[in-house]
Amino acid sequence: MIPQRTILPVMIWCLFFCLSGFETGFAQSNSKKSDSKAKQNLFAVINAFNLGGCAGCHIIPGVPGADGEVGPDLSRLGITAATRRKNQTAKQYIRESIQNPDAFIAPEGTENEYPAGVMLQSFADSLSADDLDLIVNYLDSLGKPATASPFNHSSTQQKSIEVALPVESNTAPLKAGGLSVPSAAEITLGRYLFFDKRLSANNSLSCANCHQPDISWTDGSPLSKGFPSTKLFRNTPSLSNLRYQKEYFLDGRIGDLPSVVRDHLTEAHFMASDGRLLVERMVQVPAYRELFEKAYGGAPRFGRILNALTAYVRTLNSRQTPYDAFQAGQTAALSNQAQWGLVLFRGKAGCVNCHQEPTLTDQRFHALDVPKKVDLLADPERAVTFRRFFRILGTPNYRNRKQDPGRESMTFHTQDRGKFRTPSLYEVAKTAPYMHNGSLKTLEEVISFYNAGGGPQQTADLKPLNLTGPEQQALVAFLKSLSSKSVEVERPELPAYQLLPRRETAAQEQTNKPTPAQADNSRTFPPLALLPAVPTPADNPLTPEKIELGRQLYFDHRMSADSSMSCNSCHPVNTGWTIQTPISMGGPGTSHWRNSQTILNVGYYGKLNWDGAKTSIESQNNGAWTGAVASNLDPTLGEERLAQIPDYVKQFQSIYGTDLPRWDDALRSVASFQRTIVSNNTPFDRFLKGDPSALSPAAKRGYHLFQGKAGCISCHNGPLASDDNYYAIGVPQNPGFLTSPIKQITFRYELAAKGVPQNIYRSAFTDDGLYYVTKREADRGKFRTPSLRGLTHTAPYMHNGLFGTLEEVIDFYNTGGGSTANQSSLIRPLGLDELERSDLLAFLKSLSGKPIPMKRPSLPEYQSADPKSEGNHSREKTD
């Protein structure tokens, strides 16, 4: 059971966790605001909860699969929230809780009373005001009469997506240019995917976030924002008329459009997604599966996602512009001033030298030395992205760069320094601000820049144009004529996730209960014993300094892709170093599929995870930090973040002798800290040391049963009370297993990532444990024996968290376990009477000591990378 004093903070933590997906679900409506008095369809609400993964933490009325137990039942939240604080309504309380959970709900108490820092961070930053209003309104409606609810409960039946060419698509230029024209089904699919935030790792971004249709597919900002907790250092280019381009991005680093799409979906600073996870998300949407079949004659695949988006983007071509009409003989299409500007464009101004017709670009790269109004390194998050970007491109001396090298980052030739691709001028009136760094806000500023001969360090052979004021105005008038009439783009109503039906195979069905085997009393097992000194790898000896560094990294949210979670999020100090929910939460927008194991005594394990897939703490930490359904952090991004924190740099230098933090050393540091989390002062330990009074008479009788009649010693032996082996004991499937779409997605993704064949993981609806690692039938249904040390702090129990109490566990074994293929012969009815079961429980409780206290460290802050920038950039404590 979760302590009562932690219920509210944990509730808000889990609620906040789900919000990463809310923006996706609620942003699906038409961009035009509907009548504020109209009721919201519960369909959108269900989709939002599924996207966020809230089902794994709460019971939420009206949401299938929302049966989580880490937080309280939210059925009456709209009523109970109103009682939390004086002079505050339920809506006010819920809103403030979402916006600043640590400060508002769980400030760190003097006795570490609240789990501050456990709650996932940063999601409120990605919510629009409308999104937040919708979330608050729904939560406020829980527990109130249906007549008072702002949501209706109409059918959630989904319709097929209608295949039709969207109004913004213009395929005529493709046909005229002899280019292939995508099918209507392919374009329709690409359009829906373009606006779908499920294509980003944490459901926070869609392509339309940075390429907004109402401003010619740009974002209107000088510099792009990037994935949460990253910031980009270049201006977002328009997607209009990409048919003109031969090389993409401002530095021309990619030569084909599908690869550009792939880069945006998977790069850590863009959308940070794993292609395999995206495929499983598409599979979970029946309307998408149907549309993929229409477009490609098959199921969703990552390549087909790329091709569909490419197909849609290739149709975002300009309609006839005033200039096009003028060229076609409609002389009145251009004003006299614009016609004068055309003469200047082709003559005195010399614009045509680089902006050549008919594409209005020469497809070449030029160094114009545009103004640098933004110090790229002054913002720590932007500085991190800047260095990582050029690092992965292999740019020489990337760490000492102060300015964007442009084309040089691709060619490594100094003569290409500062060169950027010439953009097409079509739709230029809609795509401000201008230049690769967005430093020029208006076309007037652009003309003035060129009129002065460009920047002082330009190498494009620019000369002052000596244009008069009226001439400059005429040129601007002509440039504006290169933009077509805007088309009002209607954002599609996106289809929602749906539960997939179970298709159990014979191998997955429960077998008849095996005939009980006789206990083999002749076998001997290592006795329970005191824990020895924790073993340490030869390449990672423990030192106080390394342990302290690891402690800081354990609590640091910056070690996740969007800075929303830390190790302590899934293994919190306050609850036995594990999440007290049957199924562990995943990263933002995901939900795990097994129970989260405690890190108590983790240093003694030879195998980690329920299936033993990892053999060292270091490798397990790597999986947790980089896993797409966990922290999802790219190692190079992690290293650059650490390098942006001077105090961390000093610690890594002192401990490892390296100039800058290295990923592997960060893993070693956290592992060193985790090896110190040892539960070795239990009543049973004191009993073994010679204190007979440490165990009650009942516990002593239970100890005798443990070693004898109950047979627990057969698997739970040695100092760790675990033989570190695998057994199939037939634990029944948790009713909450795969009961929400987000759980089904994560389950299939994890199996795919383990190399399980597609024909198996697509139809799997049971957790077969070790089999998914070894692929051997003899291992189906087997799971690793967990340690029994500290078990009173680590409920619920078993690989699927099925049992909430030790009494339930004892009853399960006493009746002979479950029934499954490969059932262990050690599992048999025990015949324990009520007193014996009580005695055994008393002994099991003696294997747990007091909770291990741990004060959260004060984490070091980011600092500007540019010494000219003013001061440090502090960050609020989010640990």
Structure explained in plain terms:
The protein is mainly α and 879 residues long. Helix 16 crosses helix 20 and helix 32 (806-814) crosses helix 33. The chain is built from 33 helices and six strands. The model is unreliable at 1-39, 104-114, 505-512, 514-519 and 869-879 (pLDDT under 50). The strands form three sheets. Strands 1-2 form a two-stranded parallel ribbon. A two-stranded antiparallel ribbon has the order 3-4.
Helical amount:
25-40%
Mean pLDDT: 86
Strand content: under 5%
- Measure the end-to-end span: 24 Å
Based on secondary structure, the structural category is mainly alpha
Number of helices: 33
Spatial shape:
elongated
Rounded radius of gyration (Å): 31 Å
Please give the order of strands in the largest beta sheet.
1-2
Low-confidence runs: 1-39, 104-114, 505-512, 514-519, 869-879
Largest sheet, if any? 2 strands, parallel
